[in-house]
Design goal:
This protein is an all-alpha fold. Among the domains are: 3-72, Orthogonal Bundle (Multidrug-efflux Transporter Regulator, Chain: A, Domain 2), CATH 1.10.1660; 235-334. It is built from 19 helices and 2 strands. It has helices at residues 3-10, 14-23, 41-55, 60-68, 74-104, 110-123, 128-137, 146-155, 159-171, 176-183, 189-200, 205-214, 220-232, 239-248, 252-262, 266-280, 287-296, 303-312, 318-333; strands at 30-31, 37-38. β1 (30-31) and β2 (37-38) form a beta hairpin.
């Protein structure tokens, strides 16, 4: 079969077939009396083998090795092709995401596009300073899609940059709530922590609902951050977790402050005092935890807390008794 017929039947151009010949990748079995290339059925089969391997991303050099080297093992090369393909897909996905974010910002002209691109690049910079400046400027100078800010906030390790990103999200409206909620379900503990910290700084009611849900999260750290935020918002559901934090000695001062905010409601104040007293009555509570619980009563107004402190001033644990007596003295002078 002559080269023109082969080209028509195989879909490989005559020019490419000549290129294969020049590389030694496919030499036609014979020649006509006039010197034209003549391909056998075996040559045609090799053409299809070449094209099949090329479709996997192999270079012509690699194709030649695969077909002609008896000792060639494909596993290593295939693994390398998989790696290259994943990198290419990741790169294309990143480009698609960036283009989508630029489109969502609705740029008016190319100057806007360039500013948005510069901001997105700055958010991904290796320099913490650049990332922080980008976060602070994202709200007013170059508004960007909230998704970009959420992605940056959930991956940020520098505390200063993280604070700037949370501030930017708080200024951007309610768009980030749902995306941050997804972060609460991340398999990575650090991402879950960053998600609840970011939600805690959102001012809207949707964020409060998410924080309520977070009180039942399987991650104890998430539950504690949610309780602190809800306590500051006056949500009584946070009380059990806040008291547990005092017992465990984890951010106990912040937890006590949150309880004092909640105790601004007189009815809730008596309920909080009752819960604290109930914990103090447990025989399994350590002395240090009993002292922290006693100190937490200091900022809880009402008769229930005062009576509890009076009883505790005669406690068998001298440290608890002295703490209660001192708090009572301060309450009497107010």
């Amino acid at each position: 079969m002559l080269i023109g017929d082969v080209a028509r039947r195989s879909g490989v151009s005559a020019r490419m077939l000549r290129h294969y010949d020049s590389l030694g990748l496919l030499r036609p079995t014979g020649r006509t009396e006039a010197g034209y290339r003549e391909y056998s059925s075996e040559d045609i089969r090799r053409i299809f083998h070449i094209e099949s391997l090329r479709s996997l991303g192999l270079s012509l050099h690699e194709v030649g090795r695969a077909l002609d080297d008896p000792g060639f093992t494909p596993s290593e090369l295939v693994d390398d092709l998989i790696r290259q393909t994943r990198e290419r897909i990741a790169g294309e996905t990143e480009l698609l995401t960036r283009l989508r974010r630029i489109a969502a910002a609705e740029p008016a002209d190319w100057e806007d596009v360039l500013r948005i691109v510069a901001l997105l690049q700055a958010l991904g910079s290796e320099s913490a300073g650049k990332r922080q400046r980008a976060a602070l400027s994202s709200v007013e100078e170059v508004p960007v899609q909230v998704e970009a800010l959420v992605e940056a906030a959930l991956s940020e390790t520098d505390p200063n940059v993280a604070g700037a990103l949370r501030w930017a999200l708080a200024q951007s409206g309610e768009g980030g709530s749902a995306l941050l909620a997804e972060g609460l379900g991340s398999p990575a503990a650090e991402v879950r922590k960053r998600a609840v910290q970011s939600i805690a700084e959102l001012p809207n009611g949707e964020a409060t609902a998410l924080l309520r849900d977070a009180l039942t999260n399987s991650d104890l750290v998430v539950r504690r951050y949610a309780a602190l935020a809800l306590g500051a918002r006056g949500v009584a559901d946070a009380v059990p977790t806040l008291i547990d934090m005092i017992v465990q000695g984890v951010d106990d001062a912040d937890a006590a402050d949150a309880l004092s905010v909640l105790a601004g409601d007189s009815v809730l104040a008596d309920q909080i005092a009752g819960r604290l007293v109930g914990c103090l009555a447990r025989g399994t509570i350590e002395s240090s935890a009993r002292r922290r619980l006693t100190q937490a009563l200091a900022d809880i107004p009402g008769i229930t807390a005062s009576r509890a402190l009076a009883d505790l001033s005669h406690d068998e644990d001298r440290a608890v008794a002295l703490t209660a007596a001192y708090i009572l003295k301060l309450r009497d002078t107010r």
